[in-house]
Each structure stands twice: as structure tokens, then as C-alpha cells.
Amino acid sequence: MTTAEHRPADVELRERAAEAVRSRPEGIATDPWRLAFHVQPPVGLLNDPNGLVQHEGTYHLCYQWHPFATAHALKYWAHLTSTDLVHWTEEPIALAPSDPYDRNGCYSGSAIVHDGAVHFVYTGNVRGDAGQRYPYQNVAVLGADGVVTKHPANPVISHLPGCTPHQRDPKVWRQDDRYWMVLGAQTEDLHGTALLLSSEDLLDWQLAGPIAGGADRPLGYMWECPDVLRVDGADVLVISPQLDHGPEAAEQFEDVVIYAVGTLDMAAARFTGGDFRRLDAGPDFYAPQSFVDDPGITILVAWMGMPDHPTQPPLAVKHPTVATGWVHCLTVPRVVRVVGDEVLQWPVPELDTLRGQAVHHEVALEADEAVALDGVDSSAVDLVVTAEASPGALVQLRLREGANGAVVITLDPHAGTATLDRS
Q1: 176 counts as catalytic
Q2: What is the per-residue pLDDT for 3?
Q3: Contact (CB, 8 A) for 72 and 47
């Protein structure tokens, strides 16, 4: 197997990305919008989390990365490692778009441990001269020396029958002595779907069939980043559907991540579940990916951003960091549980290690009264709030208040809701 170090095209692309980091604008390091403990790009644009896995006590996390501008263009896989899900170390680039089967970008995928090594399974983005798509699914192996090598059998999956060339974002797991993959796709009649495949060696894949979607359950024209979580005795299907943005889309989920709790029948290649629900109510949450850690806990990370949307302002208007030369981050890792037909999420407990000296306040306020609380004016705050209020009354917290506005959290104790206004 030829290593990435010996292929001139791969070396050149990696060096170009490294130079983009070395020559990044000086303002990035001092940008007041840089985050305290979220994964963020050193320069350029970050989007989907990829390749999440724990192996021999080390967590691996990759993400889609365009290092040369704050734009969705040629995508690499950046690679980070951690021993605690809190502090991350930048590793050499995992994947560069250097081969005929991924020449227009290394798109999303996942990770699995096979034969004692981390294997990445990902989509190669290839476009023809007229913009036509050619779908390829590929495998790469992380060696003990930290070098990622693309497998000589690539592509391991080409165009699958019954679907258009919209086929991408493989999520792989092991069950019943086989590897299973769920793959986002578009049916020939232009409906989103998720395909189920299986393999014994990650190289030879057999198509079992579509597990959901299509004309039987139409929801969008393409299902991106599908995932199957097996949590608390239930199967959870998670999808990021792409929708048409005409009037007919108004009654659908508008480019949000949704899930359904049910059962995946592997033999029949069919998911049976309840209604889809939103996985996250925030405005910036897309393309989540889960993995199961060594103790068996399901952990999920998402892109804290959204795809380009015709009804939204351009990135340069929506995100002030674009002017500095970087944009987007990942969510903090979350623990996932299933209670009934609902998915619940919590930040991983390891984040508690970031806490400093606790500050405690207990206040009673009259209507429209405000009080400043000492010790909670930091740019990074972990708040635990217990609020009581008269019927119809709201409790409001204002953080980082300044000339450009404030972060406002409004609590409605009776409705059990919290609303974040970051304008």
C-alpha cells in the first residue's frame, strides 16, 4: 500500500494547506470571537464532523475543512486527537483530495476500528466537466506512525442502482460479526433516502436496500449525513434532509436535523419508527455524527453551522469572523440517551473539568428590576440557574453586554423553555 508521503500530488496539497495555516491572518489569534473550548479551524472554513472514534484510549475527530478561504470549496479532512474530549491536539491532515476518486473534495464519512487500526470510510467528490456527479465511497487507514493511507482498492463503492449520483456520507458500525453502512442518497424519482449496506472486510459491500424515505415517506430531495444510533434498547435514525426552498417546503422541516426512534430490521433492510422530530432547536446545528466510546456511551458531535440557504444572508454578513479569515466550529460532544420516543442530550461530563471557582448568587427581583451579578462577566461561563417566577413572568439573563448588543437568555419557568437571543 503506497503511503501518502510518497505521492507527489498528495504532498503538494498537504503543503498548500500547511502554508495556509502558517500564513494565516494575524487577526485570527486575537479575534474576540475565537472560542474557549469548541473545536474551530485554524484558518478557513470548517463544516461536518467526520471520523469520530475511540481507539486504545484516544479519541479521534476529523472535520471537513477548506483551509484557503471561508467558502465551501475543495475539502480536506483535518484530524484532532484527545484523551478527555476537552483538550484537542492537531494531528497531520487525515485526507487530502489528491486522487481521481476524490479530486474535487474529501466529503463526509465515519471511522471504525478494523484489524486493530482506525479505518476512515468517506465519500470522494468527483465532478465532470459539465458538473455531473460521480459518487465514490473510499477507505483509508490510520497507521501506527500517524500517517493515513488511502486503500489501493478505492473506490470500494461506485454508483449504486436505483438512485441518482447523489450518494454520500457513509456511516459505518459493526454488528453481528459484520460491518454495516448507512449511506445518504436520492432515489431516481428525486426523494431523499438512506441505503443500508453490509460487508465483512470494509472493501466488498452488498446493498441490502433503502431503509426509509423515498416516495413512501417523502421528506426532501436528498438525505445527508444519515446515522443509526443504537441507544437504550432502541434504534434512532438521524438525517439531515435537503429540501426545496419553494412555498411547498414551508410546512416541512426547513433544513434541520431530525430523528425518529424505532427499530431497524437488518434482514429486511427497513426502519420502522415514529414521527420525525427536531434533534436540536438551535439555528446552527447540522450533519451530526455519533460514536460509541470504550465504556459503551453514545456520544454525538455536530457542525455548529448550516448549509448555504437562499433565504439567509451570505456568510460575510451572517458571521463576523469571515472578515478575519475563519468561520464555524463544532458543538461540544454530547451524551445521547433515549427515553420513550425522545432523544435527550447532555454535554459530556468531562467538560466539568473546565470549571473554575464557583460563584453563587441568590436574588429576588420585582417586575422589570435588574441587578448586576459579580463574577459572571467572563466570555466563557458555565451557568446553572434555578428560577421561580409568578405566572406569566419571565426571567432574563444578559451576558457580554456591550455597544454591539448582548447575549440574552430568557427563561419561562412555567413553560419550561429557555430562549437564546444572540442579536
Answers
A1: no
A2: 43
A3: yes
